[in-house]
Design a protein that fits this description.
Strand order of the largest sheet of chain B: 1-2
Order of helices and strands of chain A: HH
Shape of chain B: globular
Strand content of chain B: under 5%
Radius of gyration of chain B: 20 Å
Helix content of chain A: over 70%
Oligomer: heterodimer
Number of strands of chain A: 0
Number of helices of chain B: 8
Distance between the termini of chain B: 22 Å
Number of helices of chain A: 2
Structural class of chain A: mainly alpha
Largest interface: A-B, 30 and 43 residues
Structural class of chain B: mainly alpha
Radius of gyration of chain A: 20 Å
């Protein structure tokens, strides 16, 4: 482990902005996709009930 | 066809596949969470600092898995589309349709994280070099498949048209993969290949592979979940009668 403190970890040797933007965007996209599919499924189930 | 005592053809019908997919999703999701969690831990706390790029190189742990998935998912999508065309099988087209948005998302992420990596190491967000340009074209192909499918009202025609489009586009995959060898690119060559030892520390490779496996499991879970939505949306037929909508049939099984 090469991190002395939390702030050192967040700074990422001066590249914090780039590293955390990359990881943050990836996490955001994946979580958003899961929620979107979830909502799509809920509404599809509801739509199915209406037709029948 | 009976393999391991299971009649696999049974699951080529949407009604049977729907509950099967539902029971598989939690396993793939759990595997994805564990693999990504361990991968992140090794990537941030075990893997050493790169002597050339400092900590900026840690972007590799999302950039490379996202880029690999973007190409891999395109091939998988095209294979399902091709199967759909060859066997005239509706579920294959549905599977292809279910994979496209996830593939497009990973292509977008590969480009975005690439820009985030390019700025500190190359000094620019973007260059029109062969690797970056062909990956951007891949994003347009994914969007093209989605738009083409959405723009044709007749679902059978939409399936076939977008399948042909997807299959033709497979030609771009080897171009992306070999671009760093065929042309002189600013993008670095492959750090990991099948034929040579990795050009980086073992812990870095392990973290990268764990993240890739995690993204793979994630893609399967999301594609299966979207497949269920597609089945629900497309198999909705009033003729099925009052108490037999697909969801209720599936739940009853």
């Amino acid at each position: 482990m090469q991190w002395g403190s939390l702030s050192e970890f967040l700074a990422m040797g001066g590249y914090g902005l780039y590293v955390w933007t990359s990881f943050g965007a990836t996490a955001l996209c994946m979580v958003w996709e899961v929620l979107a599919v979830w909502r799509q499924h809920t509404s599809a189930v509801a739509g199915n009930r209406e037709v029948s | 066809m009976s393999f391991m005592g299971i009649n696999w053809f049974k699951y080529s019908s949407p009604q049977a596949f729907y509950p099967l997919a539902g029971s598989m999703i939690p396993w793939f999701a759990a595997a994805a969470i564990v693999l990504i969690g361990v991968g992140l831990y090794i990537g941030f706390f075990v893997a050493p600092t790169d002597f050339q790029q400092g900590e900026a190189y840690r972007i590799i742990f999302v950039h490379v898995p996202a880029a690999w998935m973007s190409m891999f998912l395109y091939v998988v999508m095209a294979v399902w589309a091709g199967l759909g065309l060859g066997l005239n099988a509706r579920p294959s087209f549905m599977m292809a349709q279910a994979i496209v948005p996830t593939g497009a998302m990973f292509t977008f992420l590969a480009l975005l994280t690439g820009a985030m990596w390019g700025k500190p190491t190359w000094g620019t967000w973007w260059v029109w070099d062969a690797r970056l340009t062909s990956e951007l074209i891949l994003l347009f192909q994914y969007v093209g498949v989605m738009l083409l499918h959405a723009s044709i009202d007749d679902l059978r025609r939409a399936d076939r048209a977008s399948a042909v489009f997807a299959l033709v586009g497979v030609v771009n995959i080897p171009i992306i993969y070999f671009s760093v060898r065929w042309w002189n690119t600013l993008h670095q060559g492959a750090s990991v290949s099948m034929t040579a030892a990795p050009k980086m520390a073992a812990t870095m490779v392990i973290a990268m592979l764990l993240m890739t496996l995690g993204f793979w499991m994630y893609s399967i879970a999301v594609a299966l979940a979207r497949m269920r939505c597609v089945i629900l949306a497309r198999e909705r037929q009033p003729s099925w009668g009052k108490n037999s909508s697909i969801h209720e049939v599936a739940e009853a099984r």
